[in-house]
């Protein structure tokens, strides 16, 4: 392919294909389905809790179980991605988590449901680190902000559609079990599509032309041929993990307990809860896309990476802090949904974190560093459903939970400020 670029001016001058964005459209779809499957239990939990007679603490344990295996396999998954490529890991993982989502439909109690969540967590573990690896392989440094948010914006959209779709299926089929089975079978079909479209190397994709390959390998004006450092510094790794852990406390806290908060603290029924969840997380998707496109636009105008990342992520955390402090003062349920929508809009500026592993780590360690970062976030996923359940059981109200999330927002800002961003 390099020889073709060097030896054929006609090919090189042709309009660039846009296969790289098709790749990220597939990644986006996988993340959407990933979050629909992951969120299904949160939406169905009020119904399941009544059927299985689950206490708030036991509900928290089951909601947390997904993250036990998800976190455990982040670092090994990142290593496997670097060794075998993201295509195999992504497609195989999608097939596997679709299977476990389907098996959840046959749970007979809290223990069997917990076991299917363990399997779901293990299967979903490679997805985001593999997306970070594809970001490094398929996009130039000037496009990685957009690539990161095109991947991560699928999370709030999946949560939004998860609320609507799972609520609708439960009501239409009069069964949470059939809703889970339908979601799982759809995921299995998507896994086959991912294998067909994804590739580990743009030069090996039959539809990528020379002009697109040149665009992928382009560097900023005055930049170097490779922006990848020889290693990631201990300070940056610590900041990356701390910031992501605190961000994920809020994100996974809302994903797992948000529907119950709307039902118990705001009096929403299942249909209202699904609609509110859709609006709230759709705002999160909007915030994610806004952050990525804005960051790349600022880079193009000559802003330094340190100024953009510290500024945007700092505003993100402070805005989230302010909304959680204000939320208990809002009595109107519609006003509460509006304020939570603002929370998610700013929270999902944190999608920019997925553009950091290609920026901070050597090219052959991007999957590993992405896995380490996601391990930190997944550890929060383990802790926060249980912590929320314990706080709720101890206090009988959500006020302390909201203040805990506000404190996490400040830690998210502190972690972001620790990271040493490249000057270019």
Comma- or semicolon-separated keywords:
about 80% helix; mainly alpha; 19 helices; about 425 residues
Question: How would you describe the overall organization of this protein?
Answer:
Helices cover 78% and strands 0% of the residues. With 424 residues, the protein is mainly α. Helix 3 (19-52) runs antiparallel to helix 8, helix 4 packs antiparallel against helix 18 (366-395) and helix 8 packs antiparallel against helix 9.
Strand and helix layout:
Blueprint: H1 2-7, H2 9-12, H3 19-52, H4 56-72, H5 74-84, H6 86-103, H7 110-124, H8 127-138, H9 144-152, H10 154-173, H11 176-197, H12 210-216, H13 234-264, H14 270-300, H15 305-326, H16 333-347, H17 356-360, H18 366-395, H19 399-418
As a whole number of angstroms, the C-alpha radius of gyration is: 21 Å
Total count of helical runs of at least 4 residues? 19
Helix content: over 70%
Number of strands: 0
- Low-confidence sequence ranges: 1-12, 222-226
- Averaged pLDDT: 86
Give the percentage of residues in beta strands: under 5%
Largest sheet: number of strands, sense, barrel closure: none
User: Element order, helices and strands?
Assistant: HHHHHHHHHHHHHHHHHHH
| Straight-line distance between termini | 28 Å
Question: What is the molecular shape?
Answer: globular
Class based on secondary structure composition and strand pairing: mainly alpha
